[in-house]
Amino acid sequence: MFKDPKLAPELAVSQWFNTDKPLTLEGLRGRVVYLHAFQLLCPGCVAHAIPQVQKIEKIFRRSDLQIIGLHTVFEHHAAMTPVTLEAFIHEYRLQSPIGVDLADGKSPLPVTMRRYEMQGTPSSFLIGRDGTIIHRGFGIEDDMVVGARIASALAMPIPEVEKPAAPTGDASCADGVCPV
Amino acid sequence: MFKDPKLAPELAVSQWFNTDKPLTLEGLRGRVVYLHAFQLLCPGCVAHAIPQVQKIEKIFRRSDLQIIGLHTVFEHHAAMTPVTLEAFIHEYRLQSPIGVDLADGKSPLPVTMRRYEMQGTPSSFLIGRDGTIIHRGFGIEDDMVVGARIASALAMPIPEVEKPAAPTGDASCADGVCPV
Amino acid sequence: MFKDPKLAPELAVSQWFNTDKPLTLEGLRGRVVYLHAFQLLCPGCVAHAIPQVQKIEKIFRRSDLQIIGLHTVFEHHAAMTPVTLEAFIHEYRLQSPIGVDLADGKSPLPVTMRRYEMQGTPSSFLIGRDGTIIHRGFGIEDDMVVGARIASALAMPIPEVEKPAAPTGDASCADGVCPV
Amino acid sequence: MFKDPKLAPELAVSQWFNTDKPLTLEGLRGRVVYLHAFQLLCPGCVAHAIPQVQKIEKIFRRSDLQIIGLHTVFEHHAAMTPVTLEAFIHEYRLQSPIGVDLADGKSPLPVTMRRYEMQGTPSSFLIGRDGTIIHRGFGIEDDMVVGARIASALAMPIPEVEKPAAPTGDASCADGVCPV
Q1: Residue B170's pLDDT band (boundaries 50, 70, 90)?
Q2: pLDDT of A1 over the 80 cut
Q3: Thioredoxin domain spans which residues (chains A, B, C, D) (predicted)?
Q4: Quick check: is B24 in a domain?
Q5: DSSP conformation class of A30
Q6: D168 lies in a domain?
Q7: Is residue D142 included in any domain, yes or no?
């Protein structure tokens, strides 16, 4: 799934809200990503993490930061269905894309949560322009620190994104670039 | 349902949590009751009203105050079922009895909510020892004011509770009193 | 100074602000008194106690509660003079009477502070209608608890104030009562 | 006083605390400076600005950010003397250098305050590595925004500091450089 062990693990999402098409970290390479994992019945998420994300949305709206929410249900599964999540998103007026972490039945923990080895919710991951994890957070994080970390990540130069080698004898214009 | 128009309307509850037997305001006459109405997806309820109720539970635990929660779902009905409420009560560690306001299908608003003519959630009602409403609250209430109101209500003398007249020619011991 | 050991010790004040005439606890017998001791350079006083007192002033303004501030300077004496206190009272818009605790030179601690055996600032004392101390507080106190305590104290019946025995052979009408 | 109109005006300070030698913005060129102006009896300064500065001190302690406080007394001059300021600094455990803004008697406003055309207190100025003002703040500023601004400023490359031209026919080693 993720060849380079230094890269942030790819997302595994069963359903998206607030976006027309699925997002992948690979497709976002070159941008800073703020990934926040939550459960709608998690008191710390609702009291602290969600309001903090809303603040991030507002403050960095003119930057190229991509905020992604991940609903990582690992308990009370029957109580936190996508139907309830949709109403939650509506009531809390969340604007950024939110994915439902894929439940594969192999564990009470969904797939992305296991890939990131999250300890619980709320968790957050600041992913740099090069796709690596700059910071892993668990629990309440201080606003000033969060602001400083994101600004530092945004200030880092955009890396050379590796372009896939043009397939021999194929002059297609995949990925928007037309190879000779 | 409620003969005396000055009395707080009786509760209509389809399911109770945190109590073995259903509660009625009539059965609680003589005690002060703090009735708080909420929805588990209501941001103001979760951020302000629920923590305030938890504080009331703690501060007045040695008094004879009876706290009652009422889950008054009037929107997103499929998202806030008793299954989700039960997990919510567990996660937020709510201790006092909580009833699900009865949905009778005649309105998106449940029955008790209509009886009290609530404007929305969070709402709260301080009911005195005589069964009348001392204060109606809607939205965020100040902690100091809430503490003062409850203490004042508790300080009021316990009224003479009207005892039902003993039925003629019937020597039963209903209500724990044995008439001649 | 205070004959009855159960009574709250009398105040010893060298200068008053926000009042035309000096206050004494004896003269306030029959009313509930909220006495708060502070220093203008005490961080906990400024951040927590003073705003709480301002809330008490607002919430209980229609009751007969008497709020009294006491500037109990026990360190940095040269930095917290009455001149600085006066500007502090102006800037923080304090409304209730405030007295400067009397420095008698026998101790770095002023007189009233010693009489009450205060541990430091902020300290607060809730004094009942009968003149006894209902509660001693030191440090940050919870708003809801403070509101409840004051309301309970206000709800207590006004005690019979001991009237001075009429001097024999003197039909004067001292204290507003005319003895036979 | 300040030749380049784009540069932040130089400080005019009559007395320093928390530093052995006076600071000048010119001497700090190449570093980011967070300059905060306050008065010890200003409620907004004590409640919001000072705690925010303490947070900045903690979070950016490993960066080369220079924090400077400026006591800009423009009212109640007799109440906010250096003696009181010294006790204030002690009680609030302020760590960064703090200067007393120079009172020249020409105005109730001290000199630096006039140079910066401050509107009042609390005011803050984020000064970039090139000596220009990046942001002017007045009143309460959001923690996340402040953190982001400072981190962005710190991420800016250190500019070439203009070296003064060697005075003709003068081989002195002023400013630590020895011209030919």
Answers
A1: very low
A2: no
A3: 2-155
A4: yes
A5: T
A6: no
A7: yes
Q: Tell me what percent of the residues of chain D surpass a pLDDT of 70.
A: 86
For residue range B100-122, what is the model confidence (pLDDT) as tens digits? 999 999 999 999 999 999 999 99
* Cα–Cα distance list, B73 to B49, B84, B177, C36, D119 (Å): 16, 12, 39, 45, 50
Q: Give me the pLDDT at residue B162, please.
A: 57
What are the structure tokens assigned to D16, written together? 């320093």
Whole-number pLDDT of residue B161 = 57
Name residues whose C-beta falls within 8 Å of residue B20's C-beta, 6 or more positions apart in sequence: none
Q: What is the pLDDT of residue B156?
A: 85
| Three-state SS at D134 | strand
Q: Which domain holds residue B11?
A: 6-155
Neighbouring chains of B at 3+ CB pairs under 8 Å are A, C
Give the sign of the dihedral formed by CA B75, CA B76, CA B82, CA B86: negative
CA distance D54 to D35: 13
Domains of chain C: total:
1
**Average pLDDT value for residue range D61-66:** 96
State both tokens at B145.
């004011």
Which of B52, B151, B156 lies nearest to residue C148, judging by beta carbons? B151
The CATH number for A80's domain is 3.40.30.10
In a domain, D163, yes or no: no
pLDDT of residue A5: 65
Is the CB of A156 inside 8 Å of chain B's CB atoms? no
Do the chains contact at D91 and C76, CB–CB below 8 Å? Answer: yes
Sheet strand arrangement including D98-101: D13-17, D98-101, D66-71, D33-38, D123-127, D133-138
> Judged by CB atoms within 8 Å, which residues 39-98 of C form the interface with D?
40-43, 46-47, 76, 78-80, 83-84, 86-88, 90-92
- Order of strands, sheet of A133-138, starting from the edge strand that comes earlier in the sequence: A13-17, A98-101, A66-71, A33-38, A123-127, A133-138
SS3 C137: strand
| The pLDDT of residue D156 | 84
Does the distance separating the beta carbons of D92 and C76 come in below 8 Å? no
Percentage of the residues of chain C whose pLDDT score is greater than 70: 86
Q: Over range C30-47, report the average pLDDT.
A: 97
